[in-house]
Amino acid sequence: MPLELHRKNKGKISIKPKVEVRNMDDMTKVYTPGVAEVSNAIARNKNDVYEYTIKSNAVAVVSDGSAVLGLGNIGPEAALPVMEGKALIFKQFADIDAFPICLSTQDPEEIISTVKNIAPVFGGINLEDIAAPKCFYVEEKLQNLGIPVMHDDQHGTAIVVSAALMNAAKVVGKNLSELTVAISGSGAAGTAIAKMLLCDGFNKCTAVTDVIVCDSKGILHKDRTDLNDYKQQLVKITNRQNRKGTLSDAMKGTNVFIGVSKGNIVTKEMIRSMSAEPIVFAMANPTPEISPIDAIDAGVAIVGTGRSDLPNQINNSLAFPGVFRGALDAKAARITSQMKLAAAHALARCVNPTKDKILPNIFDKGIVENIAEAVKKAAIEGGVVRE
């Protein structure tokens, strides 16, 4: 079915004109000689490019194909259907003109250089499916472009997980400050989730008590000598008791498990070792870290996955359209932590949470508008808008 849909349509997106060209008079206005007037205006004032071109509403969806969904390093051509899908979601839900840009390089310096060179066309850059730890470096080096740049696998995921946890905590009658969290996966998503859950000082946002992060070798702790720079930074703000051991050891006594790693690595016994009424977000795709049926059988209070065919889907498509809509509308020069936190709170408010619905459905009305307004407000209050 998916193959037939894509074959029939030769992809999922196309470019359509905003202006009809019916005769030579129209042609002289949209192209030569009339367009020279527009080009000269922009040459005199570069910022007028936002007034006269697609730039004010255009986002590049940039990937090197090195970490595509749960498929791994499958390359730029194979990444293209995913980036097309992302562009479609941008358009359908936020009316943003997004373009898939799949690069035939996985060298971080070349990615950075390429994005800088194409930036004049776009009002924002959505980095996508770029492997960790490279993705951290690439995003960091692009923060001074003067337009919003966000690696969605990091921050879109963190926004949605944060909103889900806010609402799950409400359902079980707990405050975030009471919760300890075990995360399986220290890549893009796991790192960003940990940092956002440890937020403090925004809109009465209270940090969770502690976050314990695991990679494939076990718990990240201060005595490990095999951690890269990014994991070393993460250790400084997580695992306050300096726990050691495996994922199983990390989960003992915790209130929340968040999986952004691989399927079938969590057992019922590991769930039962957690505190009473645990919350489990098993988000590995397509196979969760533990099946919802097994998690419920082991006594979880709330379970969510990354899948659309199960209750409580936790997916970054709930966040990125509204985040970029708000950033573009605010004329933001970058996307800040406050803007991301504002998005998480706005998303959480979009639903009256229940055990089986801690987040809205992407087709529920008002999600993009509510997130966009909150992000725009945070950008303006944070002083990160263009003059």
Descriptive overview:
The structure is a single chain. By secondary structure, the chain is of the alpha/beta class. It folds into two domains: 2-147, 3-Layer(aba) Sandwich (Rossmann fold); 152-387, NAD(P)-binding Rossmann-like Domain (Rossmann fold). 42% of the residues lie in helices and 11% in strands. It has 16 helices and ten strands. The strands form two sheets. The chain has a six-stranded mixed β-sheet with strand order 7-6-5-8-9-10. Strands 2-1-3-4 form a four-stranded parallel β-sheet, sandwiched between helices. Helix 5 packs across helix 14 and helix 8 (152-171) packs across helix 15 (337-348). It is elongated and about 75 Å long.
List the helices and strands and how they pair.
Elements: H1 2-9, H2 24-30, H3 35-44, H4 49-52, E1 58-63, H5 75-94, E2 97-102, H6 108-118, E3 124-127, H7 134-141, E4 149-151, H8 152-171, E5 180-184, H9 188-197, E6 210-215, E7 218-219, H10 229-237, H11 247-251, E8 256-259, H12 268-272, E9 279-282, H13 292-297, E10 302-305, H14 320-330, H15 337-348, H16 367-382
Parallel strand pairs: 1-2, 1-3, 3-4, 5-6, 5-8, 8-9, 9-10
Antiparallel strand pairs: 6-7
